[in-house]
Write a structure and sequence with these properties.
heterodimer, A: 306 residues, alpha/beta, Rossmann fold, Alpha-Beta Plaits, 2 domains, 4-stranded antiparallel beta sheet, 14 strands, 37% helix, elongated, B: 281 residues, mainly alpha
Chain lengths: 306, 281
Amino acid sequence: MTSRTPAVETLNLRKVFGGKVAVDSLTLSVGRGEVFGFLGPNGAGKTTAVKMLTGLARPTAGSARILSYPVGAVEAKREIGYLPELFRFHDWLEGYEFLDFHGRLYGMTGQHRRRRIPEALAMVGLAARGKDKLRTYSKGMLQRIGIAQAILNDPRLVFLDEPTSALDPIGRRDVRDLIRQLAASGCTVFLNSHLLGEVEMVCDRVAIVNRGKVVAMGNLSELLSSQTELEAQVGGATPLLLDELEKMAATVALADSTITMSLKDKEMVPLVAEAIVRHGGKIYSLTPRHISLEGLFVSAIEEGER
Amino acid sequence: MNVITVARFTFREALKKKVVLAAGILSVVFLALYALGFHFFVDESARTAAANSNPATYFARQFGVLVMMGLYVVNFFGGLLAIFTAVGTISGEIESGTLHAVVPKPVRRWEIVVGKWLGYAVMLSVYVFGMAWGVMGLAWVQNGYMPSEPLNGSLLMVLVSLLLLSLTFAGSAMFSTVTNGIVVFMLYGIASVGGMVEGMGTIIKSDLLVNIGIITSLLVPSDAIWKAATYFLQPRVFDLIPIPTPFSSVSPPSIPMVVYAAGYCAVVLLGGIRLFQRRDL
């Protein structure tokens, strides 16, 4: 499924708006057929990065290639689909007409459009609404028709920027199924989201960005097993103890007598226990567990802030 | 192919705009009132012409003035329609986000701009040409009067609206929708005033005023082209009255100015394309 050249490849991609760095030295590689999660807090530069990759914004520096073509090349655009974060469309069109216009822009023949448009409408659950004006659609339906225009050309790479932000739980499940269906057909999915649960359920690999920089990237299961979340019931925790634990862990949080911390390595658990005892603390329980994506996300962001 | 797709889409979109619907209805109302006014004017002129020493010249002058006033209004409507239908053609779509799904398609940015321009250009050309011939046709039906060179004149009127359309497109790639509307409308006004200043300079033989008018014409040649159109549209008896008015011209159109205006359209549109290509969405 994965060919030699990556679907998306960026090298030190940078974007500056009027002195403010939105994306700083973004280097990443997304393999073909992957479902790639691009995560980060609000304002981290995710949407700007996607805009550069889809030709909506020009990089200030660095380079990027999409399906082996330079970013913005018409050849690459022919093979990609894109759902913008702010999905606003020409609402005087009917759903079918809207997809017909985008199909024409893709250069699809009339016969191809007549076959593919009903398929795309059915894939997003709008088969019965193709003759209705977009202005009569709900926000969730607009997001669905936006996804339909993004997959209309059977893309080899699709960028979905927050594709479930307007959807109810059923709609979110439908989109997850659609993403899995796209991946099964060999399409690379670049999923830009801050809904970690969604990402955890569908993504093969993730990159976490903060302040325009990648702070963690890799195979999702490996990343989750690379860190350990430790919950310790401790009596007599002193500020000095917490200072020492902060040096050992990416994140440390104290609530009542419970200290929660994320550790790089499970082998650090005995060192944590030793430090607690050395500072006069009493250990009632120590519970190590695999870190959740949320824990990994917070840990990566906070570590990057240091 | 993409240019045609975008042009067809833009043409359809333009027809859906309320401003176009309102302009269409008001234009029909204008033609109806104009026909009525012309009808009563013809009756009145028939009575007063009998007392005139040269009734043929009298008729030509009277009807010529009336037709030129009608065409002046059509030219003004064409300019307004060019500015206000296309004012947000790029900026408005960037602000609303509708271009975000279009630009990543396999379409070059220049194709989007040229396609949109063509869509509006067809609509404006049909409007201005149709309205100009509507005014002239009403005069012809009622008393057989037809301007001297109606085709050349009406084509130049179309050029005026295309010129303003190109200017509006360039502004839309540079400014927000509201700012663009204000800037282009003011430039249109400045061009009209510049034309009047040049006319006054001609009457009082002031090179300074004439030069101010020429410079204004180079900045925005809409009034200069309208004046060129009036020469073709006014009755030849006007040639004997060397006093320029907003509805008439004292000299034949300058071919270099017409060529300049056509080139101006192209250069300004190219400028708009260049700006749009560099703009982050």
